[in-house]
Write a structure and sequence with these properties.
The structure is a homotetramer of 309-residue chains. Chain A has 2 domains: 4-62 and 199-302, DD-peptidase/beta-lactamase superfamily (Beta-lactamase, 3-Layer(aba) Sandwich), CATH 3.40.710.10; 64-197, 3-Layer(aba) Sandwich (Beta-lactamase), CATH 3.40.710.10. Helices cover 46% and strands 12% of the residues of chain A. The first copy, chain A, has 14 helices and 10 strands. In chain A, helix 1 (4-16) packs across helix 14, helix 5 (114-125) crosses helix 8 and helix 6 packs across helix 10 (201-207). The model of chain A has no long low-confidence stretch (mean pLDDT 95).
Chain lengths: 309, 309, 309, 309
């Protein structure tokens, strides 16, 4: 039996000295100014106990990790009807590619690329004002994290909006095919605010526990999603959670994860743990370089793998 | 605890009456003449005991399922050097697409699409005569299946060769980039013979046991591949095993599988079982229609899922 | 020597009874409600004399034909610097495709597909208010047509704006690469108004005379563009003027032309004539079906071809 | 009136000192060993008189320029039925791209990219032995050039065959769609020999005269193709003759041309002249760098342009 506290500290210590830490995302100034030296790890076991190392208490922009929570929320609202508007296949291309949308007539490949997540935002927005939809997403994350202090960084949200031309292209393109149903501006407003949620590794690891625990938060006992839905969201994280590096992540790490350009990764080991890592430098596929390495080592030391025996 | 014999029979009985059974592959006459009514199931537990229903004893052409065994063999020969010539990402396109090869300069996306499997054949062939390479693949499958009677259907191999223009296009294309190193004819000869291996569901389920059991055949005790390699091959099966239906298979079934155009699917439940299903009618993605449904039901009844708790 | 009046009447009479007239563009209601029966021809010789048949006096929405005039205007403003932001190659894809933009980092293939024309609008807008830029385009067309009554249909412009999601996608996408420099809304405002210019065949044929006459309006004697520029704009019309039907148009008709989804085509026979045809039904490539046939017959009867001897 | 002899000499003299001469094609050793310093020009007027400069008498491999003669020959055999198997649109991609073939189910975009020319070879081969088909192509070129000494370089043909994996990929791919009807080996044999035809600038310029002269050889008076066919082949040269640099060539040079990777370009000025230029260094689009510049200068000095007045 691995001591998770020792594990977190050891992995952090081993990797913290690495010179090659990737490249911080620079498409918005708010992300670009985060220090490349940040590196945090939090491992939450199924009792909800959290073991940490490094900058695990420092908040960062969760960015695309929010797509996991938004998907869970949207499935709760519309159920499998969601899959008429979003696919479930790995994309085989970059996170913000628009090519696939032309070939498939406005239906994004999966809910974890930008186009798919924008459709999910559009579903959550339906019949509400943007402020309400954003509030609902934030509430969902707070319940999952069991922490009322989780919040949105308005400067990041504003900056996303000001620089979000590729996302505006995706949204307008899908609107042309009828797959965005609210106004493009309002749907993107929801999407940009969701991406701007700030969390630290501890909050994030705890917010992922329901996925590791059959849909149920082991601390509060609340059923966040059904057991089957928890599995299916996990399956999507494994096949689509790391953009065009998803296959490699499954191969090397072996359990589901979802990365964000802020440098965070939420990983889920069914029946074992929920793990959050954060280091803002990204690799060529846009996933945290140190974060990915940290998860590889955690997998090696623990033997955790959904493909294991 | 589910009674696997009852399970196999029930699932077979429930689905055997289905009118919509998909479409038999017709690109070679040998496959086209197989009856759409065939339907077999075999579930092997980790003691090597096999529970069957329907046409589980009738041999069929395993086609692309052979890619799993060839990959395991090639990894045994050259190790991770293999990954310099083949990727590990889902393809996002059809099994015989050539587009990706142009974008990625002759490196196939993964070893389970045709282009990737042809490179694997080329690796196995290196330094040997085709007859030897084919013999080696066949021996590997016989050892895995614990059955010396597994053989190759020469009529199918010949027919593949006569109609294999798209595969010849793929091989020549990769040869132009230096990613096929033997003569195209010889490498394709190996590939076509490997695809023409005939097995029944019982043999196939037993041949998959080493993947479900940490790399080791539970009957013979022989370590076929290392524990880590078994996990990694399983990870590739989950992310890439069903062509452009892989994400959907992971979502609905929840454990690794590899399909073939002969209508077979080999599925692996780590620590639980190895399952072979066969029904020659294919769905739009080229995977067995009844076979996929059967695996969905088996997953539902048993609760088996790599994402489960 | 062909009698152009007889020619116009004969070709009109021969084709006017055709049952298959294509399909009226229906992406905005204003275009959809135009009668499929409309069919006009105007042939202007280099003396500025116009020979007409059918509905040659009825105004229609020139749509993409306006791209020729906007290009001439923008080249007058910034010269060859324009070609740093727009290519000169046929697109090999549909008029509103976004795929090419991703492959070529926001640089449209040519100024006659939507993306390229939007960049041209952005260039004309630079340093002005939209109203001024629109006024300048309209003035250019009025001078070319020698007719002050040419105007913009505000209902069409408004409707383009309301349904212009694909164009908004293109503009936002190019903005992300820095190839749109004004606000997307303002640039699209200019573009949508330019597309909404209304002209009849007589006006349009006369507006094309400067291209057939070495850059100079033969009636007024005014040099609209230089001789070299007239040739180069004509070359672009030949290679790129009919979207993915440009090669076919060059093959069958043999002189430069530019079509619009309103069903108009402006064709230019250097040293001979400027021709406008209009019939709102479109073929599969989005070009006027009867209009294209009319130009083929005119080419056959006159022997006009830039490839002729 | 320009003195064509002075023109040829001046343009040669002006450009011959250029340091940047592009890059010699190196995919086969026979082409790679040609000196980058070679540079020849031949201009044939409609009387068949030829004005030359530089290395105009030195034979080179005409490569893709042969596609013009093969197309003319094939159209003579099967007429417009050819267009059921080959398109007439610019490709929007590289000369040896295979992507388009997948999107358009084995129908090449035009007869001047490799895939299209291989179909043309297949048409010429139909019902003959390869030796006969090759003989027929060679005879056609000899008649057009009015020169019985034109021949094929067997070393080049052999080398093409040995390194022709991308062409083999194209041919096999089209065979899979039924658009190659003879054996792939035999069709490619014809194609590779056709590409290996050797000519010098004088022979080539004379061989293009029938296109500049309404289909008729002005020296012999023989009608090689009909007037309409001469125009249509010229139209295809203009829209598709320079791969993905065709639009630019039309824009800058303004008359039809066809380039080959051997560094030759055959250009046709209807009613004026046939021009051959040769310099083995290629630009980024695979067209002769000095050759293209020479044609631009010839166009400027003479005012020749199909778009001129």
């Amino acid at each position: 039996m691995v001591d998770l506290q020792v594990l977190a500290r050891d992995v952090h210590a081993e990797l913290n000295g690495e010179a090659d830490r990737g490249k911080v995302a620079d498409y918005i100034p708010e992300l670009a100014k985060v220090s490349l030296n940040k590196f945090g790890i939090a491992i939450a076991n199924l009792d909800g106990v959290c073991f940490t190392a490094g900058d695990a208490d420092e908040a960062f922009s969760i960015q695309s990790i929010s797509k996991v929570f938004a998907l869970a929320l949207a499935l709760g609202k519309v159920g499998d009807a969601l899959w008429r508007r979003v696919g479930r296949e790995p994309s085989g291309s970059a996170f913000n590619s628009i090519i696939q949308l032309e070939h498939e007539k406005g239906i994004p490949r999966n809910p974890f690329i930008n186009a798919g997540a924008i459709v999910v935002s559009d579903i959550i927005l339906a019949g509400h004002r943007p402020r309400e939809a954003i509030g609902e997403i934030l509430r969902f994350v707070r319940v999952a994290a069991n922490d009322e202090t989780v919040s949105i960084d308005p400067a990041v949200a504003r900056s996303e909006q000001e620089h979000g031309f590729r996302n505006a292209a995706l949204a307008n393109y899908m609107r042309a095919f009828g797959n965005i149903r609210n106004s493009v501006e309002l749907t993107l407003g929801v999407y940009f605010h969701q991406c701007a949620i700030e969390m630290n590794c501890v909050q994030l690891a705890q917010a992922g526990l329901f996925l590791a625990n059959g849909g149920c938060d082991p601390r509060s006992g609340i059923s966040v999603v059904s057991r089957e839905r928890a599995r299916r969201i996990s399956a999507l994280m494994l096949t689509c959670g790391h953009y065009d590096g998803s296959g490699d992540f499954a191969f090397k790490v072996g359990f589901p994860g979802k990365s964000g350009v802020g440098g965070g990764i939420l990983a889920v080991v069914p029946g074992k743990a929920s793990i959050a890592v954060w280091s803002p430098g990204l690799n060529a596929q846009g996933n945290s370089l140190l974060g990915t390495k940290a998860l590889e080592r955690i997998a090696q030391r623990t033997g955790w793998s959904v493909f294991g025996t």
